[in-house]
């Protein structure tokens, strides 16, 4: 079963509640919230106060993708804001094992994200601890970029590692996900698909979300 996580990065920020309702109606499984700090990535989005407000308008689980340096400092804020999954970048976490334990200590699911150039090897010794691995299929920081083809091999390698350890971990892909590439990417083992521009730049957000779900 594939799951769809619309990323509000491409939504109309002046109408976030309304836009979330549209993907909710289309059957979205998660709301993907891209938090950017202008340091780890060259862009700034929003933080815990905005997520806390959005928590009041929907029951859909919040999948919070932290593209920030020193994530430990802010994890409790995102837990208090209502995050259900918190994903930190391997490249931004100096003590990744500790950070993962810290997230889980709040009863929240922990994910680890890998930039396109980061090897699966880097998470070999923490993978047993996480609920989800996020393979960035674009360089993080912006919506509307093209899927990086080499990431197909990376998804296959990750799936192989997960299966060899008999683990039950979600593989999320994020960046350049469209209606026409999702099936192929799912065949490599990914099961949670983040889609920003493909959903929110469309003229019928609910219907496109439904089409993603029905694939
Ligand atoms: O984390 C990010 C970007 O850094 C994403 O979640 C984007 O929001 C995906 O956007 P599209 O590539 O689907 O437009
Ligand atoms: Co993201």
UniProtKB/TrEMBL annotation:
Reaction(s) catalysed by this chain's protein: D-ribulose 5-phosphate = D-xylulose 5-phosphate
Enzyme class: isomerase
Listed GO MF terms: D-ribulose-phosphate 3-epimerase activity; metal ion binding
Entry cofactors: Fe(2+); Zn(2+); a divalent metal cation; Mn(2+)
One Gene Ontology term, aspect cellular component: cytoplasm
UniProt keyword terms in alphabetical order: Carbohydrate metabolism, Cobalt, Isomerase, Manganese, Metal-binding, Zinc
Pathway entry: Carbohydrate degradation
Cofactor note: Binds 1 divalent metal cation per subunit.
Chain positions recorded as substrate binding sites: 7, 65, 141-144, 174-176, 196-197
GO BP terms: pentose catabolic process; pentose-phosphate shunt
EC code: 5.1.3.1
Binding residues annotated for a divalent metal cation, in chain numbering: 32, 34, 65, 174
Annotated active site: 34 (proton acceptor), 174 (proton donor)
Chain segments annotated as transmembrane: none
Role played: Catalyzes the reversible epimerization of D-ribulose 5-phosphate to D-xylulose 5-phosphate.
Family membership noted in the UniProt record: Belongs to the ribulose-phosphate 3-epimerase family.
Protein name, as recorded: Ribulose-phosphate 3-epimerase
Gene name of the encoded protein: rpe
């Amino acid at each position: 079963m594939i799951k769809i996580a619309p990323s509000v990065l491409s939504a109309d920020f002046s109408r976030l509640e309304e836009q979330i309702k549209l993907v909710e109606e289309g059957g979205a499984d998660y709301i993907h919230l891209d938090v950017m700090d202008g340091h780890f990535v060259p862009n700034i989005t929003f933080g815990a106060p905005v997520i806390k407000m959005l928590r009041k308008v929907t029951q859909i689980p919040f999948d919070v993708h932290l593209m920030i340096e020193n994530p430990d400092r802010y994890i409790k804020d995102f837990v208090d804001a209502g995050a259900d999954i918190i994903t930190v970048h391997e490249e931004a976490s100096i003590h990744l094992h500790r950070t993962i334990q810290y997230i889980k200590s709040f009863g929240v699911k922990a994910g680890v994200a890998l930039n396109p150039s980061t090897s699966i090897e880097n998470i070999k010794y923490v993978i047993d601890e996480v609920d989800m691995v996020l393979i960035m299929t674009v360089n993080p920081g912006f919506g509307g970029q093209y899927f990086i083809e080499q990431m197909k091999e990376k998804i296959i390698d990750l799936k192989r590692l997960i299966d060899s350890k008999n683990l039950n971990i979600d593989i999320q892909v994020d960046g350049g996900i469209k209606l026409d590439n999702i099936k192929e990417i799912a065949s490599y083992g990914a099961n949670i698909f983040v889609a920003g521009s493909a959903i929110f730049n469309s003229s019928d957000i609910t219907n496109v979300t439904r089409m993603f779900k029905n694939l």
